[in-house]
Write a structure and sequence with these properties.
alpha/beta, 7-stranded mixed β-sheet, 6 helices, 28% strand
Length: 237
Amino acid sequence: MSTSKPTRITWLGHATVLVQTPSGTNILIDPFIAQNPKYPKSFELPSKIDAVLLTHGHFDHAADVVPVTKKHGSTVVAIHELAAYVGGKGVSDTIGMNIGGSVQVKDVTATMVDARHSAGAEDEQGIHYVGVAAGFVLTIAQGPVLYHAGDTTVFRDMELIGELYQPKIAMLPIGGHYTMGPKEAALAVRFLQPETVLPLHFGTFPPLTGTPEQLAALVGPGVRVISWKPGEDFTTA
């Protein structure tokens, strides 16, 4: 489908991604900014971020949710328990949901899907139960279907995600150690059948050794694996 403007996906290091739709909706996924060693320090977020999506409660995915939402007037979308938790930390506008559900953010339908990962949130009082880890499928009006897997290993039900939502672009963790590495991500690609893979969650810390080149060598023909650096973006036609 041709559009007057593309969908723009900007990688901000680790699993932090900014999605900007053809109609100008801004969605930030997993804000890890101030203490993210790979965050592009010269990058300026848009003045208005319509929604912040949280895949789970770990520090390296949710550390900056409070300052970002206060500065940019955002609604936080997360699994029910995590939405309640960040609400107690000072986020004034939240939407709690659960796996299989969808919410509408302007021209984007955000659907929460399964992931395989731990998901507690830690603060000065210890570790808290904040629901389970999840991923998001974003169905964009006049744009592509995107899948942000959050933190996960490969699992057979990724076939269901592919069958139900047919994501054109899959954002997958590939670093290993805490998530799947290139070998597991290559099988995820086979299950999901996207056209393009945008690798995430690699190179931030020493244990995250997987690379886009390793993944590209393992996937079949017809799937593009983008080798990108934090601060770079990918635009759809």
